[in-house]
Amino acid sequence: MLSAATQEVAVAQFDMPRGELEQYTPQIDEPDDFDDFWAHTIAEARAAGDAQPGGGAPVLERVDAGLTQVTVDDVTFPGFGGHPVKAWLTRPAHAEGPLPAVVQYQGYNGGRGLPHEHLGFAAAGYAHLMMDTRGQGSGWGGGGATPDPVGAGPTVPGYMTRGIEDPHDHFYRRVLTDGVRAVDAVRAIDGVDPERVAVTGVSQGGGITIAVAGLLGDLAAAMPDVPFLCHYRRAVQISDAMPYGEITQYLHVHRAPEVEERTWRTLSYLDGVSFARRAQAPALFSTALMDDVCPPSTVYAARNAWGAEAEGATTEPPRIDVYPYNGHEGGAEYRFAQHLAFLREHL
Questions:
Q1: pLDDT score recorded for residue 314
Q2: Strand order in the sheet with 127-131
Q3: Quick one: CA torsion of 278, 283, 289, 293, rounded to 10 degrees?
Q4: Furthest CA-CA distance within the chain
Q5: For this UniProt entry, which residues form the secretion signal (predicted)?
Q6: 3-state percent helix, strand, coil for the chain, nearest multiple of 5
């Protein structure tokens, strides 16, 4: 996320022409055991949750937020390793019948914030789960409440190189698993229709959205905006903006060839393009042509790969809304109306 002052400054359109972006389908380094790696990861996390008291069911505590038309619950659910992950659940106060749900993931170094910051989806009639991001929540916004109890070796400040020596130890293995478990949690809540669940997020949240859609084949919709965590090599090659710049800085210092090889191998298990290939849910993407944080070619790489390896995949890539004169803020507030229209169609 960028401050209001920063958002006023955009670079020129620096990436491929739009016609080339529409056709961009790069070959990426995908490990042969990608599916086994993630199947084992998710199964292990679910087993760790099931072993906890109450069988790992989400714990809800009603919060008096001073709101009359929306109810708020402070949710705790077991994520990666069974670690407790926090979330806010907001719902229309007088709703009847099982509600469709939207699970939302937060941007880089933001937390779940405060419940009154997330009222839009509940006001539109949805159950809305805003997942906290473990270890983050102190960079902007209203803060987070979920620690990450797992350590790491030498890293660049930030999250891209935490556990970079091995994909099993990487920070985003834990976060993406938390994202799947957030969907598991909302499906287990009374008053939510488990068959009508969508996922969404901006930037890092968009990257998590893509990963969860690739790992869960039964979502109703996915809405990633200016997504991060896609096509890492391309991002590092064409932009020095953070957070991808953390990878560049790490390799600048740890310059041995074997370290570079190990780094790209780890990241190959976390690339949104690989998750997108496996995704089956209807999707709505967005990108901005002046975005040097998540360059448009990295977004198109995921969008153009969507469903390529999914059973019964269509030949047409998902819709993508393009903002030619914007940076990483993308469509910002203009996205909400597009989201609601998309959800009405699919939920």
A1: 58
A2: 59-63, 70-78, 84-92, 127-131, 99-105, 192-202, 221-225, 284-288, 319-323
A3: -60
A4: 61
A5: none
A6: 40, 20, 45
Structure-token pair, residue 122: 């509940």
Whole-number pLDDT of residue 2:
44
**% of the chain beyond a pLDDT of 70:** 96
For residue 173, give its domain range: 4-346
Residue 96 corresponds to which amino acid? Answer: E
Residue 258: count of CB within 10 angstroms of its CB: 8
pLDDT value of position 322: 98
Catalytic (active-site) positions:
203, 291, 328
Instruction: Please identify every stretch of the chain with a pLDDT value under 50, giving residue numbers as ranges.
Output: 1-7
Angstrom distance (rounded) from CA 199 to CA 298:
20
How far apart CA 114 and CA 144 sit, in angstroms, is 9
Place of tokens 């690339």: 271
Count of domains observed in the chain: 1
> In this predicted model, what pLDDT tens digit does every residue of 115-156 receive, in sequence order?
999 999 999 999 999 999 999 999 999 999 999 999 888 999
CATH number at residue 88: 3.40.50.1820
- Identify whether the C-beta of residue 130 lies closer than 8 Å to the C-beta of residue 75: no
Residue ranges of the binding site: 108
Residue ranges of the annotated binding site for substrate are: 108
> DSSP per residue over 69-120, as a string?
SEEEEEEEEE-GGG-EEEEEEEEETT--SPEEEEEEEPPTT-----GGG--H
pLDDT at position 3, please?
43
Residue 269 contacts by C-beta under 8 Å, 6 or more apart in sequence?
31, 34, 37, 38, 167, 170, 173
Quickly count: other Cβ atoms within 10 Å of residue 10's Cβ.
Answer: 17
Per-residue confidence (pLDDT) for residue 311, from 0 to 100: 76
